[in-house]
Design goal:
Length: 431
């Protein structure tokens, strides 16, 4: 019988073989909006909006409907259904569609955007405007980043439960037909500081030099996992936002302002607990985000560990090289790998590395302290992070559209086969 260490749910030990747990089957059961006649039409409309492949959304399903009905009141849903993910709308425009006073509409939208942080709100010279956020990445992170286990309300806890149920369907796998490297993981700072091939973009201190403002919040992934009983004892206050992205969060109180030195201390402490640093795969000077991740909670990592779908993670600059003349086959490297990229046969004395799952963090090398049988070697074909969002979109726009198109085609085909009508176009009321 296999044994799963309680603090390492992504690894199993079976007859001396330390290896990743096999991917689990997806539980996604797509349906059509017309199959929910008992649900208020405004909630069905909102679910259709969030299901858009352009937002990376899940198909209409039980989990999505339950999530939407919890996030929004019926009054809020009646307004949010008029928002899209690509374009902004003002309170004036929605007031005309709903035949209600602008002041009332503004109050409701402001609550959803600023208090719940469930939609995007932006102040312009002519007033506020709003649009939908993707469920993830987007709404999930903003709703929970400013909370803690002590401050989470029953509403936040239920939000976390329903999001976990939605994530567990595996719907995000549908968007990985074409890999889009949204995130990258930095090598451990000791490795980055000492390895002659390490680049400035791999040294967190150098990355932080671009910014003046730093905010810290709670890891949303670990908090939501803890809510549903998947207890992880790793540090929580490790999620950082930098630059312009951090200023609003600090002003509104859902990020704690910290200095660069304090942030580096937080990240070093996180690494001492076996966490690895994730950042956006872009050399942005406007803003950046970073969390310290574990393989059992991080949603990007769980896409690999749960569903064997690594398409959102950029290939690493370093990979481990194993000197089997020094290796004692203790299995520590395989036990410490957050993505199960190493399989160690402690009885048959063999180690196998899976480069597709490797993020080049160096945790395996740091675990091999006694034998020193692992050295991190440079990958010659390593691709530097993108210089801007524009260069990222130019390089990956076709893949992103291709993923959305393939998802849309599959869903449309299923609806046609089932003989169920799709969503009806929005109609303006006559006031």
């Amino acid at each position: 019988m296999s044994r799963v260490p309680p603090t390492r749910r992504v690894i199993q030990i079976n007859k001396g073989i330390v290896a990743p747990i096999p991917p689990r089957p997806r539980s996604l059961r797509p349906r059509a909006a017309g199959e929910y006649p008992h649900v208020s039409p405004v909630y069905r409309d909102v679910a259709v909006q969030f299901a858009s492949p352009l937002l990376g959304g899940p198909p209409i399903c039980d989990e999505l409907l339950a999530f939407v009905q919890h996030v929004f009141t019926e009054e809020e849903a009646a307004l949010v259904r008029h928002l899209g993910g690509m374009t902004w709308r003002t309170a004036d425009e929605i007031a005309r569609l709903e035949c209600r006073p602008v002041a009332e509409i503004q109050l409701v939208l402001e609550k959803v955007a600023s208090q719940k942080r469930a939609i995007a709100g932006e102040r312009r010279r002519k007033g506020w405007r709003y649009r939908l956020l993707p469920i993830v990445p987007g709404m999930f992170e903003l709703v929970l980043i400013g909370e803690s286990p002590e401050t989470m309300s029953p509403w936040h806890r239920r939000f976390a439960e329903l999001f976990e149920a939605l994530f567990d369907t595996g719907y995000l796998v549908d968007y990985q037909s074409h890999p889009v490297p949204w995130v990258r993981f930095l090598p451990l700072q000791g490795l980055a500081d000492s390895h002659p091939a390490a680049l400035p973009c791999e040294k967190l201190e150098v990355v932080l030099d671009r910014f003046q403002t730093f905010g810290i919040g709670s890891c949303q992934c670990r908090m939501s996992a803890n809510v549903v009983g998947k207890v992880c004892d790793k540090p929580l206050e490790v999620c950082a936002v930098m630059g312009d992205w951090a200023e609003r969060g600090i002003q509104q109180g859902w990020l704690r302002s910290v200095s660069k030195a304090a942030l580096l201390d937080i990240k070093r402490e996180a690494e001492s607990h076996g966490l690895v640093t994730w950042i956006m795969n872009i050399e942005s000077t406007t803003g950046q985000a970073s969390c310290s991740c574990c393989g059992c909670c991080c949603k990007a990592m769980r896409m690999v560990n749960d569903f064997n779908a690594p398409g959102v993670v950029a290939p690493p600059h370093f990979v481990p090289h194993f000197d089997e003349t020094k290796c004692t086959y203790c299995g520590k490297c395989a036990l410490t790998c957050p993505l199960g990229a190493i399989t160690a046969d402690t009885r048959g004395e063999h180690v196998q590395h899976n480069p597709v799952r490797c993020i080049g963090c160096g945790l395996c090398a740091s675990a091999c302290t006694s034998a020193q049988a692992i050295q991190m070697q440079q990958v010659p074909a390593y691709r530097l992070p993108y210089r801007s969002w524009l260069s990222f979109l130019l390089a990956n726009g076709a893949a992103m559209l291709g993923n959305s198109w393939s998802v849309w085609r599959r869903r449309a085909r299923k609806i046609d086969e089932a003989g169920l009508a799709g969503p009806q176009p929005e109609k303006a009321r006559e006031c």
